[in-house]
Amino acid sequence: MRDPHWWRQAAVYQIYPRSFSDANGDGLGDLPGITAKVPYLAQLGVDAVWLSPFYPSALADGGYDVDDYRAVDPRLGSLDDFDDMAAALHSAGIKLIVDIVPNHSSNRHAWFREALASPKGSAARSRYIFRDGTGPDGSLPPSDWQSVFGGGAWERVPDGQWYLHLFAPEQPDFNWENPEVRAEFLTTLRFWSDRGVDGFRIDVAHALAKDLTEPLATSAELAAEGEGLDGAHPFWDRDEVHGIYAEWRELFNEYNPPRTAVAEAWVHASRRGRYASPEGLGQAFNFDLLQADFDAVRFREIITANLEQAAATGASSTWVLSNHDVVRHATRYGLPSAPAGSAKGQDGKGWVFSGGTEPDLDRGLGLRRARAATMLMLALPGSAYLYQGEELGLHEVAAIPDADRQDPTFHRNAGVDKGRDGCRVPLPWTADGPSFGFGTGGAHLPQPDEFASTAVSEQEQDGSSTLNFYRRALELRGKQQTAEELEWLESPAAVLHFRRPGGWQSITNFGAEAVELPEGTVLHSSAGLDGGLLPPDTTAWLA
After folding, report:
1. pLDDT at residue 1 is higher than 70
2. Taking the CA atoms of the chain, what radius of gyration do you get in angstroms?
């Protein structure tokens, strides 16, 4: 059997296809663009690529509004292009993970169009969640629930009924009590698995199962997302969702090696394990580091707790610092930390809302800390998820004109939230050209002038660049990787020092003063060392 455990300590590189590389010059990244960059990915040293959605879509939510789950958006290529890309990745020894969006389709999906054309109570409508309204004439929504993207979570259709959309109105929620829905997604998972896909990232994995028994609770009566502990919330993290994933696991295990899956599940830490169980998806994202400030005490608490959780479920932990939904960590770490006592760290949203003017961003400090945190993360047992562009040290792009913004969180929350476009700006491959080498034409989101100095072509020539730092770190990680364990070593309060089996050590200085390096041969460091001292905001690996 081929290695069934390849995913447990893999370095996975997330590609947002529309912003990675544009092969045909239309301003939108595409699958042939990814294929052309496979040598770059191989040189970077990642084990797998995870593709955000590439399906036909109106882009009401960056592709997470899916028209057809078994097709490629014509603007991004064809199924033949997908097969060529998968073959190129596999030839380079890189696994392929694709995004599956099972909570909702787009409102252009054939099933939803059929539902709108069908009467109340029809089989077509039962694939989604339709309800009559409230009030004397049914003109009020079934409940006062709010969508994640702002505004009400119910949308009225011409015949007076309302449908549920936990996200944008263009994303109607499926009814997972309907056997047709369950069968349709099993068909989709088999379709991509048969095309050689090695694994799946499950979007909003905690929302599929719902209990809409009336009377519906009010928003004030509901626990916040990620805070419920009893599995009884009407739509977040219900216990029944795991029956769905048990069916999926049976399908995954038919393949050699078994297909992998990782859950995007914003749930309380105590409930994450069920998503990651061997009988379920097998792995679940741990976003705790992503939500933490650059702080030794908090990092150690998170690492310890998540390794314990992983050991209890038999899964491996996942580590994430940036993705397509959050402000890049190089920027977050360059902003003032969250106030003492805050439940979560600096998320950078206020800075983005100001257009990148307030508070002051220390770009150099942010990048220095980002490199140190990334290097620490890469030394941890488990799989590491990297987001495109972080290997170039890219900062969040805040100064995007409102007319150019695409994210529904901006359009539905005008004056409150600028959205997530700033981490989705197309990558710079060269220092010049109409889109810094992204394509021969422009880019679908405006790129800042600073991209010229961060372009791949520039960094490849600089041995101390962030790109070459990542390449060396990933190369060493592959050579040093060992059993999924670590041992904490004695260190000052602002320093995290641990040893992996085989003698590989990682030491990170979160403090303001340099500290003495322990004995050993330095393999790599996130910044230059000061003789036998480890400077502030720096990580070193030793053998």
Report:
1. no
2. 23
How many CB atoms sit inside 10 A of residue 477's CB?
Answer: 20
Comparing CA positions, the residue from 51, 44, 153 lying closest to residue 104 is: 153
Q: Give the pLDDT score at 143.
A: 97
**Span between the terminal Cα atoms of the chain, in Å:** 33
How far, in whole angstroms, is CA 474 from its chain's centroid?
19
Q: Which residues pair with 152 in a beta bridge?
A: 146
**What are the φ and ψ backbone dihedral angles of 256, each rounded to 5 degrees?**
-125, 110
CA distance 263 to 101: 11
pLDDT band at 413 (very low <50, low <70, confident <90, very high): confident
Report which secondary-structure segment, H or E, holds 456.
helix 456-459
Give the separation between CA 390 and CA 13, rounded to whole angstroms: 10
Residue 332 tokens, joined: 């977050």
Residue from 254, 308, 404, 485 carrying the catalytic annotation: 254
Q: Which residue has the tokens 């054939």?
A: 110
3-state secondary structure of 263: strand
**Does residue 254 carry a catalytic annotation?**
yes
Is pLDDT of 144 > 60? yes
Measure the CA angle with vertex 324, ends 323 and 325; round to 5°: 95
Rounded Cα distance, 347 and 470, in Å: 24
pLDDT value of position 483: 93
Amino acid at 229: L
Q: Residue 10 is encoded by which pair of tokens?
A: 């893999």
Averaged pLDDT score across all residues of the chain: 96
d(CA 224, CA 236): 9
Among 22, 173, 198, 203, the one annotated catalytic: 203
pLDDT in tens, 96-143: 999 999 999 999 999 999 999 999 999 999 999 999 999 999 999 999
* H or E stretch covering 499: strand 495-499
pTM beyond 0.90, yes or no = yes
Task: Return the beta strands (E) in 106-165 as ranges.
Answer: 130-131, 154-156, 162-164
DSSP class of residue 542 equals E
